[in-house]
UniProtKB/TrEMBL annotation:
Matches recorded under Gene3D superfamilies: 3.30.70.20, Aldolase class I
Residues reported to bind [4Fe-4S] cluster 2: C29, C50, C53, C56
Family: Belongs to the glutamate synthase family.
Pfam short name (any one): Glu_synthase
Substrates-to-products reaction catalysed: 2 L-glutamate + NADP(+) = L-glutamine + 2-oxoglutarate + NADPH + H(+)
Gene Ontology biological-process annotations: glutamate biosynthetic process
Protein name: glutamate synthase (NADPH)
Top-rank EC class of the record's enzyme: oxidoreductase
C-alpha cells in the first residue's frame, strides 16, 4: 500500500451556516480545490491542491471561506523542521529538483529595516515639497567627468545616451510567457503614463507593445529569445542579463506548457518546447567578451541606446561591477538575493547570493574609490517594498530601483508562490485564456500608476524632511542614514554610522 507522507499545509475553513452553495469558489479555483458534493448537498475541498492564493476567499459573496495554516505538526526539532522533513519526502518520492517561485521565505536579514533616515531640524531647515521645488526626475547613463566649453564659452553637451525617468523607479524584468499578456500590458501602459520604463525580460516583445518603445527596456539573455534588429531598436535601452538575484549562477527556464500561441511566436521557438537559457552566454567568458557584446549592441542601434548589464548580487560583486564599468556599459543593474522569480531551484533561491543593501553599498564605494562612479549609473533591485526602501537605496548609492514583486502585488498577486505551475488565479503568471482575462489591463495599469505616484509623494516628503530637494543630492548621501542593531562590520560595509552617532 502506498503511503501518503504529506499533510496539506493549508486548510479550507468553510462556514456552512453562511455558505449558499453558489459554487463560485469552484468556478474560480484553477487548482480544482473546491467541489460540490451532490450526495450531501454541500461544498467540499481537496486541501492538498490549495496554494493559499485567496481567490476563493476574495470572490465568496457570503464571506463563508478562509484559509488557515494547518496545525498538524511534526515533533519539535530545531534542526529537522517540518519543512525540511517534507522537502526530503518530496525528493525521495520524485527524484527531482525542488522548484519555487517568488522570493525566498527564509528569515534572511532585511537591512532596509535596520536603517533609519536622518531628518532636518534647526540648523538645516526642512523643505516643504508642496510649496517649494522638489525634483525626483533622474537620468541614467554615463556622465561626463568634467564640464567642457567650446571656444565661444558655451557648454559642450555631447552626453552619452540617457534614460530619463520621472521617478527613480522602474518595473523590473518579467518576460511575456512568465507573466500574461494582460500583465505585460498593465506594466507597459503604466510606465508610459508615469514617464518611467518597464523591462521586457528575456522573452522578446509582443508586437502590440512596440508603441510603448520609448518606455521599454529590451533584454538580451543567453537564450537570445525574441532578439532581432527591430526588437533591439524598439526600446529606450538594452539590458544584457548576466544573472538574476533569485538564482545567481544559473540560467532561466520557462516550461513548454507556457510556450503557446503568441508566446511561441514572440520568443521565436516552437510551441510546447521548453525555453531554456543557460547560465553562461555562449560568447561571454571575460570582461573583454562582455565589452564586445556591449559595443555590438551599440553598433546595431547606432549608438543611440544606453546599455545595461544586469548581474546578481554575489560576494565579489564590487570587483565584477568595476569590470562592467570599464566594459563600455552605461548602467549596471544589481539584483539581490531576496528578489522574486517565476521559478527557481529552491536550494539556489534560498542559499545563493547576498542581500542587495550590502551589494549596493560595496559597489558604489568601489566605483568611487576607483574614480569611475560617473562612468555608469546603478539600478538596484531585489525586494524593494516601499518608498522608504527607495530613499535608502538611493542614499546608499543607487540612481534608481527596479521593482517587480511590489508591482505584481499592485496587480493583485497574493504571493502564493506557485507561479511555475501556470495556474495563477489572478491572471498574472499564467497563459490560460480563462485565467488571463481575470486581469483587466486598464485596472492593472491604474493600480500601478497609483502605487508609483503614492511612492513619489512619499519620496518627496522624506527628502523634504532631510532638507534635500533633488534625487541627485540624495544619491550616495550616506550621512543621511543611521543603522540600528547592526554589527560594526555591517556598518562599515554599508558605510553608515550607528544611530546616536
Amino acid at each position: 500500500m502506498a503511503l501518503d507522507y504529506f499533510y496539506p499545509p493549508y486548510e479550507v475553513v468553510r462556514n456552512f451556516d453562511r455558505c449558499i452553495n453558489c459554487r463560485l469558489c469552484e468556478k474560480q479555483c484553477a487548482n480544482e480545490v473546491h467541489r460540490y458534493d451532490e450526495k450531501s448537498g454541500k461544498m467540499t475541498a481537496d486541501e492538498s491542491k490549495c496554494v493559499n492564493c485567496h481567490r476563493c476567499v476574495a470572490v465568496c459573496p457570503a464571506r463563508a471561506l478562509k484559509i488557515t495554516k494547518t496545525d498538524h505538526a511534526f515533533r519539535d526539532n530545531a534542526n529537522w523542521s517540518g519543512q525540511v522533513i517534507t522537502e526530503i519526502y518530496r525528493q525521495a518520492e520524485s527524484g527531482g529538483v525542488l522548484l519555487s517561485s517568488m522570493g525566498t521565505p527564509k528569515p534572511l536579514p532585511v537591512y532596509w529595516d535596520k536603517i533609519l533616515i536622518n531628518a532636518s531640524q534647526v540648523t538645516n531647515p526642512s523643505i516643504d515639497p508642496l510649496r517649494e521645488p522638489m525634483e525626483t526626475r533622474t537620468y541614467l547613463g554615463k556622465k561626463p567627468g568634467r564640464i567642457e566649453r567650446g571656444a565661444d564659452g558655451k557648454l559642450i553637451t555631447n552626453l552619452s545616451p540617457q534614460l530619463e525617468l520621472a521617478v527613480p523607479v522602474l518595473f523590473s524584468a518579467m518576460s511575456y510567457g512568465s507573466i500574461s499578456y494582460n500583465a505585460h500590458a498593465s506594466l507597459a501602459r503604466a510606465a508610459q503614463e508615469l514617464g518611467i520604463c518597464y523591462n521586457t525580460g528575456e522573452g522578446g516583445l509582443h508586437e502590440d507593445f512596440y508603441p510603448y518603445g520609448a518606455n521599454t527596456i529590451v533584454q538580451v539573455a543567453s537564450g537570445r529569445f525574441g532578439v532581432h534588429e527591430k526588437y533591439l531598436t524598439a526600446g529606450a535601452a538594452i539590458e544584457i542579463k548576466m544573472g538574476q538575484g533569485a538564482k545567481p549562477g544559473i540560467g532561466g527556464h520557462l516550461p513548454g506548457t507556457k510556450i503557446v500561441g503568441d508566446v511561441s511566436r514572440t520568443r521565436m521557438i516552437p510551441e510546447g518546447s521548453d525555453a531554456i537559457s543557460p547560465a553562461p552566454h555562449h560568447d561571454i567568458y571575460s570582461i573583454e567578451d562582455l565589452r564586445q557584446l556591449v559595443y555590438s549592441l551599440k553598433e546595431a542601434t547606432n549608438y543611440t541606446k544606453p546599455i545595461i548589464v544586469k548581474v546578481a548580487a554575489v560576494h565579489n560583486i564590487a570587483a565584477i561591477a568595476s569590470g562592467i564599468a570599464r566594459s563600455g556599459a552605461d548602467i549596471i543593474a544589481i539584483d539581490g538575493c531576496r528578489g522574486g522569480t517565476g521559478a527557481a531551484p529552491t536550494r539556489i533561491r534560498d542559499n545563493v547570493g547576498i542581500p542587495i543593501e550590502l551589494a549596493l553599498a560595496s559597489v558604489d564605494q568601489r566605483l568611487r574609490d576607483e574614480g569611475i562612479r560617473g562612468n555608469v549609473s546603478i539600478i538596484c533591485g531585489g525586494s524593494i517594498r516601499s518608498s522608504a526602501d527607495v530613499v535608502k537605496a538611493i542614499a546608499l548609492g543607487a540612481d534608481a530601483v527596479y521593482i517587480a514583486t511590489a508591482a505584481l502585488l499592485a496587480l493583485g498577486c497574493h504571493l502564493c508562490r506557485s507561479c511555475h505551475a501556470g495556474k495563477c488565479n489572478w491572471g498574472i503568471a499564467t497563459q490560460r485564456p480563462d485565467l488571463v482575462e481575470r486581469l483587466d489591463p486598464d485596472v492593472g495599469a491604474e493600480r500601478l500608476v497609483n502605487l508609483v505616484r503614492a511612492w513619489d509623494h512619499e519620496i518627496r516628503e522624506m527628502m523634504g524632511g532631510m532638507g534635500i530637494n533633488s534625487i541627485e543630492a540624495l544619491r550616495g548621501n550616506r550621512l543621511m542614514l543611521r543603522g540600528v542593531g547592526l554589527t560594526q562590520k555591517e556598518l562599515d560595509i554599508l558605510g553608515i554610522l550607528h544611530a546616536g552617532e
